[in-house]
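[Structure tokenization] protein backbone as discrete codes

[Encoding] learned vocabulary of local backbone shapes

[Begin record] amino acids and matching fold tokens:

___
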Amino acid sequence: CVACEYGKYAPQALTDSCLDCDAGFHTNNATKATTCTACDAGKYSHGLTISCAYCAVGKASVGSAANCSECSSGFVANTIGSSLCSACSAGRYSLSTSNCSACPIGQHQGSTGQSSCINCISGTYSSLPGSVLCDICDLEYSSDSGASTCSLAANGYYLTYTSDGDSVISHNCPKNTKCEGYDYAPVPNSGYWVDRSSYEHVSDIYECPRETCKGAKSNSSCWKYAAYNQSDSYQKNGGTCKASKLLCTEGASGPLCGSCDVGYVYHGETKTCTQCGVAKDFTYTFMVLDVV
């Protein structure tokens, strides 16, 4: 009689040859094996072996496995010999197969077993890693997508800034202006004027005595806080955000748009600045008296 070879077994005396111990099974003994036993969950074998190997980190198996299966995205096996892949919990995600990570601030994940997190939508935020839900901004505040704080103004409000320029406070829109929220300053309506020399004056709105204050477009970048800190060439001397361009009708400039530029003259009937030498159509009524 001859002893069974490595990886083979004979449950009883055989006349020809020993039996192969197939994949997913092992013999326990190097020779003279009488049994072929299934691998436990978390282990595997390719057959013809005396022992089963542990599944590597990031993989798992059920019993009698010829191979271990890699965990899908959003699932992990963080120890060797795992019998199953565990789903990442809500607020976490996984791109690898070995570890789940907390969602970064500004994102959330409300489901388990996910491979990514979701940006908080505008008007919401998450300030802590691993958020399951995003918090809603207070009434007077808003945010961009993926925000960790509510640092923008809601529609109908505007922001003021602390001396360090970091913290913000949201305020109701002043009378006779429109406020688009975000980081736009209040914009005067037609017939009103504001001093643009400093952001400190954004809420001081004045009624114009002439018809030279045209109002402004609120979605212009000139009304953002940053525009007030630009160079003089940006704010003045014909720059993009020159106050007279933003606030005054053609030919008018200065405080309350109360001055006429060179080449223009104030017309008392229309209360506007009229270009010199350009005729205007006006209707006059004359009274003729008989002189005796």
